[in-house]
Design brief:
Distance between the termini: 61 Å
Shape: globular
Low-confidence stretches: 1-8, 10-15
Bound molecules: S-adenosyl-L-homocysteine, iron/sulfur cluster, FE3-S4 cluster
Helix content: 25-40%
Largest sheet: 6 strands, parallel
CATH superfamily of the domain at 21-149: Methylthiotransferase, N-terminal domain
Mean pLDDT: 92
CATH topology of the domain at 21-149: Rossmann fold
Length: 467
């Protein structure tokens, strides 16, 4: 047989894929860390990193850490011990990065205590991860990046790719409030608000990708402010209420939330947005921490219990069905039995739909950790359980009051049982529906048929509200 004629040697199109490398990010802490983990995935994608399900399968493991209470920080060091073993078992090629608030607060200590760690990167510096990885390959330069570079970070982040129906959008970073118990002002740096145009562009892009719920996030999200964009004839300065009104007008956005707020920044305009903006969820997470003015003062919260309750009253006037959530700390230094009773009285007066309660945990470098009259652990335990009982009673009552109502539920996950779907009501109550597997990433009308202290069960009413 004759030889097949040879084709001229045409250059192959450039289809060589970047080396696919496994990335495993473990996230602790608050919504800011959830957002940052997502953005770290975006930053690492062009380098060929794709998510895998376990540390064992990964070339790079990132621990995105939380420093808020002692337990959270301890977890990091025990997890690092486990990762060291996995790294060794794999011949030492796996890379370990520590990100987040422990990285920021204890970067040098981490490198000293756990030599298996290759990189330490703070919450405002993770856009530099590609450079750090390159330095690691060259075996030159610094393994620690903990600058406060929020502005530079946001400018450097690539476009997002999302798949779910709900997305966080960071609009504000850092905190200048300096509550005496809290590490956040030290780990996240000074308050910084992202510009209106960048936020709107990101929100538009999320809506284009099918996102139905946008959650505006920040450590003190209602401290957000920014210069009005050129198209606003009023000009001047925008506050969070203005931003919410604008995001509400973007096509496709059906639900807006924001978290977490500080009572001092609960402006009239934001309260009015709860009255005027239909897509703004009737949900407000407004941490109060304690009900005694003496303790609030020692915490440097800069408001009294009465001022908090008057904000709650004004919000309820604007939006009578609002679901109010809060955070509490029990056993702050010097908290007496009478102070704690004031906390219980505040709970009774405010009527919460949800609340988180924590035992005070002394944090290195914060003013409260050096205060006299630290409260005994047994006393904290007892106060915590009494407070939790009061909160649970209220959330149970709130949930029961929704039984019989029809609510639009945003389905975001599969439930525990086969075919079950899990979503959230406008009041942020988890809602389970049987035979709902097809509902994922949709908003559907649900009749609430049952309630516990923590969740609701429902029945699908009709066709989905939206596709
Ligand atoms: N930026 C938010 C949340 C900060 S951290 C705010 O200003 O409210 C989330 C919660 O953790 C806080 O509301 C507080 O209740 C709790 N927390 C913070 N520091 C703590 C500490 N040292 N011990 C116990 N709980 C703490
Ligand atoms: Fe921490 Fe207070 Fe700032 Fe909240 S407002 S992040 S509790 S310092
Ligand atoms: Fe934790 Fe940092 Fe958030 S300390 S709660 S991860 S801001």
């Amino acid at each position: 047989m004759g030889d097949t004629p040879q084709r001229p040697n045409t250059p192959k199109p450039n289809v060589t894929k970047p080396n696919v490398r496994g990335l495993y990010i473990k996230t602790y802490g608050c919504q800011a860390n959830v957002y940052d983990s997502e953005r770290m995935r975006d930053v690492l994608k062009p380098l060929g990193y794709a998510p895998v399900d376990s540390a064992e399968a990964a070339d790079l493991v990132v621990l995105n850490t939380c420093h808020i209470r002692e337990k959270a920080t301890e977890k990091v060091f025990s997890e690092l011990g486990r990762l060291k073993d996995i790294k060794q078992a794999g011949g030492g090629v796996m890379r370990i990065a520590v990100a987040g608030c422990v990285a920021q607060a204890e970067g040098e200590e981490i490198i000293r205590r756990q030599p298996a760690v290759d990189m330490v990167v703070g919450p405002q510096s993770y856009h530099r991860l590609p450079e750090m990885i390159a330095r690691l390959a060259r075996k030159t330069g610094d393994a620690l990046e903990i600058d406060f570079a929020a502005e530079e970070k946001f400018d450097a982040l690539p476009a997002r790719e999302v798949s779910g129906a709900s997305a966080f959008l960071a609009v504000q970073e850092g905190c200048d409030k300096f509550c005496t118990f809290c590490v956040v002002p030290y780990t996240r740096g000074a308050e910084y608000s992202r510009g209106v145009d960048a936020i709107i562009a990101e929100a538009r892009d999320l809506a284009r990708q099918g996102v139905k719920e946008i959650v505006l996030i920040g450590q003190n999200v209602n401290a957000w402010h920014g210069a009005a964009p050129a198209h606003d004839p009023k000009g001047g300065e925008w506050r969070l209420g203005d931003l919410i009104r604008h995001v509400a007008k973007l096509g496709g956005v059906e639900r807006i939330r924001y978290m977490t707020s500080h009572p001092r920044d609960m402006s009239d305009d934001l309260i009015a947005a709860h009255r005027d903006v239909e897509t703004l969820a009737p949900f407000l997470h407004l941490p109060v921490q304690a009900g005694s003015d003496r303790v609030l003062k020692a915490m440097n919260r800069q408001h009294t219990a009465e001022q908090y309750l008057s904000i709650v009253e004004r919000v309820r006037q604007a939006r009578p069905d609002i679901a109010l959530a809060s955070d509490f700390i029990v056993g702050f230094p010097g908290e007496s039995d009478a102070d704690f009773e004031d906390t219980l009285a505040l709970v009774k007066a405010a009527q919460f739909a949800q609340a988180y309660a924590f035992k005070y945990s002394p944090r290195p470098g914060t003013p409260a950790s050096g205060m006299h009259l630290q409260v005994a652990e047994a006393v904290k335990d007892e106060r915590l359980s009494r407070l939790l009982a009061a909160i649970t009673e209220q959330s149970q009552a709130f949930n029961e009051a929704t039984v019989g109502r029809r609510l639009p539920v945003l389905f975001s996950r599969e439930g525990k049982r086969e075919g079950q779907a899990l979503g959230y009501s406008p009041y942020m109550q988890p809602v389970h529906v049987d035979d709902g597997a097809h509902l994922n990433n949709r908003i559907a009308e649900v009749e609430i048929v049952g309630a516990t202290g923590t969740s609701l069960s429902g029945r699908l009413v009709a066709a989905e509200v939206t596709a």
